[in-house]
Amino acid sequence: MSSSRSNPFPKAPLAGVRILVGRARHQASALSAGLKKLGAKVIEIPFIEIRQPRSHKPLDAALKAIAEYDWLILTSVNGVEALSSRLKRLRVPIGKLKHLKIAAIGPATREEIENLRLRVNVIPQRYIAESVVESLRGKVEGKRVLLARAKVARDVIPRELRKMGAQVDVVEAYETVLPAASRTRLRSLMKNPKRRPHLVTFTSSSTVKNLVALLGGRSPHARLEGIQFASIGPITSSTLRELGLSVHIEAREYTIPGLIKAIRNGRPK
Question: What DSSP string describes 207-264?
Fold first, then answer.
């Protein structure tokens, strides 16, 4: 029979599934749009807020001396946006960066860099810090490297590149903070059985830690009972497990499209 009533599967793979997206407000659109396209009811409450660093001096000093660097490493779209903003503020033409070899952690970061008309020389096989290190093995010995990143980040890249003989300068391009306004909204959401999400998405370790903090510390389990979790990759999954939370879905490709695909294939029960 061809009637929709006899079909046990909904036309939209995620129809009826409520999904909480906790990306920073200005970054949530791609993930939300992809999930809505699959029929999900998306709830956006940011677990993370991107802010300018307290001081731009280290980044500005590096950009003014950019001719002295051989490599530039960017590990997020936020880092690229911060770099671009400071270049404009300092009136440093983008041509001053053309001599650099550039490494980007993943396709979204690469696309943002290429939008500045800069060439990306290295993109790792897996979109995590360890893979960035492996992709630069044999390329950075004796070279001067600029790593522009968040204020709080894992030290894998600078530590391992220094072991290879690179001179690495790490500068703060932006910082991530807890969006206090989300606390009341989140707690209200979790109390309402008609609005409670079936699934929460996590796109970084920071989003995991911040959700736990927003819900009241290291043991938010009671508020999260019965909810499934989707992780963008192994580092984020590791943080979930460290905080006593399960990983129900993990993306094979550590990107937003990869996460959407994984959620589609692992539709919450």
Answer: HHHHHHHHTTSS--TTTTTT-EEEESSHHHHHHHHHTT---SEE-SSSSHHHHHHHHH
DSSP element (H, E) containing 50: strand 49-51
Topology annotation, domain 51-177: Rossmann fold (3.40.50)
pTM passes above 0.85: no
The 10s digit of each residue's pLDDT in 34-92 is 999 999 999 999 998 888 999 999 999 999 999 999 999 999 999 999 999 999 999 99
Nearest 5 degrees, angle CA 26-CA 47-CA 254? 75
Sort strands 228-231 and 18-21 into parallel, antiparallel or unpaired.
unpaired
**Location of each CATH 3.40.50.10090 domain in the chain:** 13-48+179-265, 51-177
Q: Strands across the sheet with 41-44, in order? A: 41-44, 18-21, 199-202, 228-231, 249-250
Domain 13-48+179-265 has CATH 3.40.50.10090: yes
Question: CA 252, CA 257: separation in Å to the nearest integer?
Answer: 10
